[in-house]
Structure formats: structure tokens, C-alpha cells
Amino acid sequence: MKIPKLLILIPLLLSSALAVVAQKRPVEYVNTFLGTAPLTDPADIGFKPPWRVWAGLVFPGASVPNAMLQLSPITKFGSGAGYEYENNVIYAFAHTNKGHWNLCNIPMLPVSGDVNPEDFGSPFSHAKESAHPGYYQVYLDRYGINAELTSTLRTGFHRYTYNDNAQPKKLIVNLARSDERIRDWKIEQDGDNAFKGVQVASEKVYFYAVSNYKIKQIEMLKGEKAQLPVVDFAAGSGPVEIRIGLSFVSSDNAKENLQKELGNKSFDTVKAEASATWQALLSKIQVSGGTERQKELFYSCLYRSFLWPALRSDVNGDHVDEKGAVVKANFQYYTLPSLWDDYRNKLVLLGMISPDVTVDVIRSLIERGEKTGFIPTFFHGDHAAPFIAGSYLRGLRGYDVRSAYNLLLRNATVEGGTRPYIGEYMEKGFISDPDVANPVVETKGKAGVTKTLEYSYDDYSVALLAKELNDQPNYDMLMKRSQNYKHMFDPSTGLMRGRLDNGEWIKNFNPQYPYYEYMYREANAWESSFFAPHDTDGLIGLYKSKADFEQHLDSLFTIPWNPNYIAENINSFIGQYCQGNQPDHSFPFLYYFVGKPEKSQAILNTIMSRFYGMGEQGLALSGMDDAGEMSSWYVFTAIGLYPYSPADPRYIVSVPLFQTTTFRLNESKALTIVKKNAGERITGIKVGGKKLDGYFVEHRDLEAGKELVIATQ
Q1: What SS3 state is found at 196?
Q2: DSSP-H helix ranges across 524-628
Q3: Which residues form the Glycosyl hydrolase family 92 N-terminal domain (predicted)?
Q4: List of residues 6+ apart from 296 with CB closer than 8 A
């Protein structure tokens, strides 16, 4: 029997149509709760924890990329991001967030009926909670209120739907609380429907809010420790809508931000626009192949990579400078990046996907430097140097690179600024620590090993700019100093070891024991000793042979963690390697340099499959996300590219999770990464049809849209 061609085609067409319908958009893969749940299993952590392990410390609420405002629920003040998944009471919706035990400003909570100033939190359940990029929703069981949140760059939009419209509708504005110590606050009514004020913590955060309900009064309820402002609305039916603008300059600016950015848009319009903004950003990297879970982790991590730094400029161009003065600039002013963390990968990703934001972040750093004499850092090191150098070498312009260079050179040579103990470093070539008989995790010190290694890399980064700007004398000086990491190498142990002031080795040396700042910064010797991304061949040369170096790497990944060695922020191990903190995040790639990339790939695969989406709910990370660094590590590794030395405009190639990745670095051309076959060992790499010699691909080739083909078996 001959079957008509049309009957053959119909199933094929239906199958094709169903495939199109089933294809999810990148924004639909994002789970904003990833990183909010705890780690509890000692097998995941490496020890039995006496505290809640830092397993993400992120917020699930509404924000758009790199915004001033992050509108998110608070289940516990004083926690990393205010929200912990295991909690079951919501105390507020706050308007700023980072995930570093700070911010969480202007907390508000809708209520009904009488308010107890000592007990007003509402139970909730995850069954009645949902979120996606730019939107958060939860049902407040205590008050019978469905709360919805969405946002723009500088404004937030609350929609509260009451089950019982007859109940008095009220709004707690708990200005005495945030994740920081509150020094002062003020709130006042402004006309029939608006209220404004300020909350003073490390910064002054101003707000201007407008309700669709008339305001009868703002009550001040007296609590045991502080007054509690409660906005009392007039009777009415329908949802309560609160539109709020923020500013770090004034409440007038907050009002202007609100009027110009939100205006009279409906809640659903703002929600849709926020989702569209995220879809446009996330679509700059599109993947096919891989599992649905891998795509969920990938796009959730990509989303998390674009929430910090945060905008601080108002719509009129005003911002508060480093000296506390209000200034008007011709660029968008941003917060300080989380430089010790995110210079390693996230700021590179920011430059690739959001170059305009990155340029303004650099201009913000330069302004800080011009006002204070030094470009600041975050936490440790001087990592504005690799960030700015790497951005410049990747072609980002639009800022005064000469000014940036001069400031970074000052950072590298003048005591009393960004680099502590720089005088000792310049004089001796290393930074010492005291000899302590019985050091413990909290023993005070200079973190001399870590500083010496990091300053060496920072020197190299500034040297790259010196070369670009034809400053040969300082280039030579800085390149010589970039070898200072070698002064910390102890041949008898094959590890980087602390030195005393006189140059002798610190005697009480246990390479497995972790410290917060004694010899090492949040690490032990194993987690610190292989950091020389600018000179890995030189690092290997310190060992007897490549085989000896490889043996030490094997030990790094196989010596079991001692479960009696307990330190916050140091957890989730492969041997001594710690994925839960930043210092050793480039170490899995080191096997490439001894000709064993397949050993690197095995470790990379283990990290991606084991340390993301952990815990009972599959919502934990192996450690703090640290403003997107942990997430960006996954993004780069999942597509088979990693900025091994972020100051250098090139990437080490590994086996991607996905068969095809389309990465749009600019508007005109898109890079395509193709994985040939389903193997886990690289057999060849081609860039633009030409065989790649080695494993590093240049940024200029990616930007040109050349196809990167990674053959595997």
C-alpha cells in the first residue's frame, strides 16, 4: 500500500511544532531560589557544622540587571541576604540587597487589623510562593494577603491583594531595622496618598512612596527597643498598590526617579518589562543540548551574575561621591564591585555581555580614586588592577585609561592606601607574618602569603597597562615584582609558606590547617599554593619536574579534609581543594600545564555536577555566591571557556556541557561554540576553521564571531 506523502508529513510537522512550543526561553529556566537553601549534610560540607553553612546567601526577590533597587523578602534580619529558605516567617520586604550582611533597607510589610509591634511577622509556605526574574510573590498566611513585587532600575512596585477587604489595611515601615546598624531614620506623610523619608545606616537611603489608597495617618507604635511606623490606609476595595522610588541623594530625587521611571504604568506592565529585560540579557548566551537541569543551573547562574555592582546614579545624574558630596556626572555611577571575588570571572563576563555597564563601573572606580588618591579594593588584594587591565585589553574604551593607570601605579607603590604592607613588600619582596606557637583559625596576622601572591598578580596586571601606555621603566619594575610570589615557595614542602620578618620560614606549619588571616586569607596552604595565573610555567619550574608538580596537584585533590578543621566560608571539598570559597577556583585547570587536560576535565565535571544545586531541595550552592563569582564560574565552565588569568584577553578551553552555544558579544557578530561528539576528552580545537595550537583562545577571535569547534572523544 502506498502511503500519501501528505500523511507522512503531518506527523513530522506536528512533531516539529510541538518541539517549538516546548522550547523554553532562557528567562523561563531561571530559578531565583537557587542559593537560598542551607547545606546540612557533613558529606557535602566536609565537617559537622556548628552553624548555618554559607550556601549561597542570595536573595530571591525582584530586580532588573545591576539596579539600584532589589525588592526581596526578609525572613531573618542579620542573615547574609535576609532570606533563608528553611525559615517560615516573613518580616518585611526590603528594597536593597547584595548578600554580604549589609543593606536590606526600607523594610515594609502589609498587615491587617491591629498591629503588635513586638510580633507582626507572617507565616508563609513555599507552596504559596513563586518567583522569576523581576517578580516575586508570596501569600502571607497571618493576614490573608497575596503580596506581589516587581521593579525597575530605581523603583519598586508592591501589589497586595487582601482576602478580606473589610479588614483595616495597613503597612509597617520598619525603619529601625536593616542588615546594618541603623543610626537614624525619618518618615512623614506627603499629601493624601504619599509618604517619604530616609534610613541612615552606612549610607543614607531616601525613599518616596505613593499609594493608590488615601492615607489616614502614620502611627508610631512604641516597641521595646524602637518605634514602629505604621501607615494606616483609608477604607476601600481592591488591591493596595505601593509605588516607591529610591535615591541615595534625597527624597526629592527619589520622587523624581519614581515619576520618570515608573510613572503611571500598571503592575503587570512593569512585571512584563522586567521579564523582557532579563530575557534580552540572558538570550545573549543561548545553549542547546545538555539536560534540562543543566540549563536551569546555567541560566540561574547567568542571572545571578548580573545583580551587582548596583546603580547609584539618579535619573537626573546625581550621585553621592566617595567624600559624601552630591555630584552630577555624565555617566552612571555604580557601587564598588566585590573585587576580591568577582575579578576572577564575573567582571570578565560583565564586560562581555554588558560593556556599557562595565565602562561605567570603571569610571566609577576612577572617580573614587581621583577623590581619595587610591582606587579602592574590596576585602583583600588590589584587584581593580586585573579588572581594568583585562577590560582594556579586551577592547573596552570610554574612560580615562591614563588616569586609571596612574592611580593603580600609586596603589602599587604608596603606603597607606589600597595595599597594606606595600612598603615591606617593595623592600623585601614578600610580606611576613609573626611566628605563633599554637595558631588557631582566628589567629591575627597579615595574611602575608596570600598578599604576596595576590600583589604579584596585581603587579603583573598593572604592568600590562604600562606596556600598552609605553611606560617601559615601570613595566620592567612591575614585571620584576610579579615574580615575588616565588619568595613564598618552600622547596621542602612544595607549598607556599609564611615567612618571618627576618626571612626565615614560620616554624609551626600545618599545610592543611585553615586560617582567616594568618599567613593565608580564608584558606590553608594547599588552597593558596598554586596561585600564579600570570606565570604558571614559572610556578611549575619551582618544582623538581613537571611530574613532581603533577604529584602535588594530585595531593591537592586527594588528601582528605580533616573534619576537625572547621572555619566559616571554607567548606565543600575535593580533597583539600575548596569550591566553597574563591582562592583556588582556577586550580582545577592546572593539569593543562603538565599535558593532562583530561584530569582537569574530570575535576571540572565533578564540581559542576556536585557543587551546584546541592542539598535536600537542590537549591544550595557550595558557598557564598559572593556577588556572582560562584555563579560566573559555572557559566564559563559550562560553555567550555574560562578566564584563567582575567587580566589577559584569552580563555582556557574545556569540554562544554552543551552541544552548541551561541554567545553574542556584540550586536553584529555571534560566537558559536560547537562540541563535536559526546566525549569528555578534547582531541582537537579549531577557531575559525584553523587548528588551535594549545588550549587558549584569544578574545579577539571570539569577538570576531569565529566558530570555536571542540572535538571530543
Answers
A1: strand
A2: 536-540, 546-558, 597-610
A3: 29-247
A4: 29, 30, 31, 613
Calpha distance 507→436 (Å, rounded)? 8
Cell numbers found for residue 568: 566559616
Q: Where are the beta strands (DSSP E) in 506-582?
A: 573-574, 577-578
Whether residue 309 has a cis bond before it, omega within 30° of 0: yes
- Residue 285: in which H helix or E strand, if any? strand 285-288
Sequence spans of domains, the chain: 63-282, 286-712
Cell of 200: 541612615
What are the residues whose beta carbons fall under 8 Å from the beta carbon of 21, sequence distance 6 or more? none
Q: What is the 3-state secondary structure (H, E, C) of 637-667?
A: HHHCEECCCCCCCEEEECCCCCCEEEECCCC
Quote the CA–CA distance of 461 and 457 in Å, as a whole number: 6
pLDDT(50) > 70: yes
DSSP string, 211-258: ESSPEEEEEEEE-SSSEEEEEEEPS--S-EEEEEEEESS-HHHHHHHH
* Beta bridge partners of residue 187, listed in sequence order: 197
Distance between CA atoms of residues 667 and 356, nearest Å: 13
Paired strand residues for 392: none
Superfamily (CATH) of domain 286-712: GH92 mannosidase domain (3.30.2080.10)
Amino acid at 697: V
Q: For 286, phi and psi rounded to 5 degrees?
A: -115, 135
CATH number of 63-282: 2.70.98.10
3-class SS string, 356-376:
HHHHHHHHHHHHHHHHHCCCC
Tell me the C-alpha distance between 438 and 292, whole Å: 50
| Measured distance CA(197)–CA(190) in Å, rounded | 10
* Distance in angstroms (rounded) separating the CA atoms of residues 189 and 360: 36
- 63-282 and 286-712: identical CATH topology: no
Start-to-end CA span in the chain (Å):
44
User: In 10 A of CB 286, how many CB atoms?
Assistant: 17
As a whole number of Å, the CA-based R_g of the chain is 27
Measured CA to CA, the distance from residue 705 to residue 713 in angstroms comes to: 25
Longest dimension (CA), the chain: 95
Q: How many CB atoms lie within 10 A of CB 372?
A: 15
The string of pLDDT tens digits covering residues 501-525 is: 999 999 999 999 999 999 999 999 9
Asked if 677 and 665 count as a contact pair (C-beta separation under 8 A), the reply is no
55 or 251: which leads in pLDDT: 251
Q: What is the mean pLDDT of residues 238-250?
A: 98
- As a whole number of angstroms, the distance between CA 583 and CA 451 comes to 12
Task: Please report where in the chains the cell 541612615 appears, as a residue.
Answer: 200
Query: Is the Cβ–Cβ distance between 163 and 139 less than 8 Å?
Result: no
Does the pLDDT at position 321 exceed 90? Answer: yes
Which one, of 334, 336, 309, 347, lies nearest residue 629 by Cα?
347
Residue 668 in this model has a pLDDT that exceeds 80 = no
- C-alpha cell at position 292: 534540562
To the nearest 10°, the Cα dihedral for 87, 92, 95, 97? -20
Phi and psi, residue 499, nearest 5°? -115, 150
CA angle at 267 for the pair 265 and 270, rounded to the nearest 5° = 65
Contact 198, 186 (CB under 8 A): yes
pLDDT at 22: 62
Distance, in Å, from the CA atom of 542 to the CA atom of 549, rounded to the nearest integer, reads 9
